[in-house]
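Journal club side-thread
Mid-discussion, someone asked how the predicted structure for our own chain would compare to the paper's figures. Pasting it here so we can look after the session.
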Amino acid sequence: MRIGIVCPYSWDVPGGVQFHIRDLAEYFIALGHEVSVLAPADDDTPLPPYVVSAGRAVPVPYNGSVARLNFGFLSAARVRRWLHEGRFDVIHIHEPASPSLGLLTCWAAQGPIVATFHTSNPRSRAMIAAYSILQAALEKISARIAVSEYARRTLVEHLGGDAVVIPNGVDVDFFARAEPRPEWQGDTIGFVGRIDEPRKGLPVLMRALPAILAARPHTRLLVAGRGDEKEAVEGLPEELRSRVEFLGMISDEDKARFLRSVDLYVAPNTGGESFGIILVEAMSAGAPVLAADLDAFAQVLDQGKAGELFTNEDADSLAEAAVRLLADPDRRAELRERGSTHVRRFDWSTVGADILSVYETVTAGAAAVAADERATGLRARLGLARD
């Protein structure tokens, strides 16, 4: 099958949607399918062989964050050329409602289109206002996927229609077989995320840290991600700042080793999350997870059975739970075991097969429609001939 996948966000700025698309593309390539991904990227950025650049992205405030998107006449021309050269059996657009390549592709594409909706935003005025513009494009979509029930709800409430829920995927074994790094072990709390994006919740964790360190003075917080490190710790007392270690951006291999090493992974995100891929990665690596009680996080963690939850944006609740878990190795071992079992439902062997079934359904439907149209045309021509 020839599969074209459209990424809305800049390929050279890591994020959950980009990782999902990368892993999905590589899963299908490993199965023998031909895959091409169209994504915003600087023209001089090294790209995997299956990724085609649609040109440089620009930062745009979107869903409580700053997304790097690509839109305009040049981008539209690159979309049309990519579609023409690809001759795809199916086109899979991620975030078709965002002002980026997905919307341009919806306008330009012919044939079966599958769309995945990642965004969870119960009060998106922008999406409501743009509905009239989006409607014609969205009507061309053959099948809709939402990565969670909360992304599905956003779609239904803002744009109408419905979607099948297929979660984000993870290569569970990649994380499970990673080797821990000794320097990241020993009474450690882990955090992965953009430091200077408030909704990722690092400020909440920083507010909880004094209480955690008061109870467990040898604990260290390890932070992986880009951002202003000095600003991140400016609210901490001077004598506690040495207990925070910033690792900067880390590779996928080191992220897996990081998650295999820490005693507790904390996800203090404050909102805007439709899924929580980092939770799945952490469970895959065997890290006990403590997360804010966002609806999407609770669903990923099996309502608290595969990881513990604390009250969102409540630093005291976070600190109390973290201290209790760090002092209870048996409970952490229980969470590791439950998480490792629960996370298998998110492995690409399951998720990828579900997405491929959607592709096969829409391409079979398109083939049936085309055959019916040919038959109708033939009958019409025969009828004219009899006249």
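Post-session note: The first helix runs from residue 16 to 30.
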